[in-house]
Amino acid sequence: MDEYIQKYRLFIVAGIILLAVGLIAFMGKKEEPVVHQVAKSEDHRGVTVLNYHKIDNTFHSLSVRPEDFEKQMKWLSQHGYHTITPDQLYAFVTNGAELPDNPVMITFDDGYIDNYKNAYPIMKKYGFVGTIFVVTTYLEKYPNYLTWDQARELEANGFSIESHTATHKSMTEASDDQIMEELTKSKAMLKEKLGKDSCFIAYPTGTYNLHIAQLVKNAGYKAGFTIKYDAVNRNSNVYALERVPIFHTENTNKDFLERVLYLPLMNKDGWVKK
Length: 274
Prior knowledge:
Layout: H1 2-28, H2 34-40, E1 48-52, E2 54-55, E3 63-64, H3 66-78, E4 82-83, H4 86-95, E5 103-110, H5 113-125, E6 131-134, H6 148-156, E7 160-163, H7 176-194, E8 200-202, H8 210-218, E9 223-225, E10 244-245, H9 252-261, H10 263-269
Parallel strand pairs: 1-5, 1-10, 2-3, 4-5, 5-6, 6-7, 8-9
Helix pairs in contact: 3-5, 3-9
């Protein structure tokens, strides 16, 4: 019996050694870099949609300093990025329309006046356009928000002014009637003030669900933007288009570069924040 046990133990040890050798060989196997795999595959081609709020010197996570914003726009320009409009992005997702090389969409939420005073001149300097999702009842009501004249000037110079609802009410905490009022009132005000039929909306706080998306569609919007660390591609849901937020941090510009450059790698490896 002791001899049998001894042989059994030797068999187990040998098996463990073989398993360890195989594991080491597998871990040591060199694979093609993920970045190259992403670059080779058309399935991973997408558009990064950046999401800003305020461009000023307020000490707040939503406030990117103008000097940092300038560095970011300069970097995009120097590296051959081209800004696109919501209509271009929508055509890309729904009809497979071609986009310029290195497309990027730059968006702002709420409609702060610093978007006009600080962001607009910087973007104009680099030949960029952006999209501002405005809380329509806030314009000309509060001094830190855009005026309708400023909104018209931005529209005349290639910017898109779109809906961020009428009062920024969280849709996941509102009734259907309240949601429809937010959607239709905002759309009607944009039509009255800018003479445009707004077709795009950014969900307040980025929150939504499938039912809310259906109400957005019923209200006459053809696409909605949320907040998600991912790129928009031809498989994206047009009522849940991904946007990557840019905040003021301890190292704002480093974080900006990581979000622009590493997004495809993050998607490939599943490192996506839901």
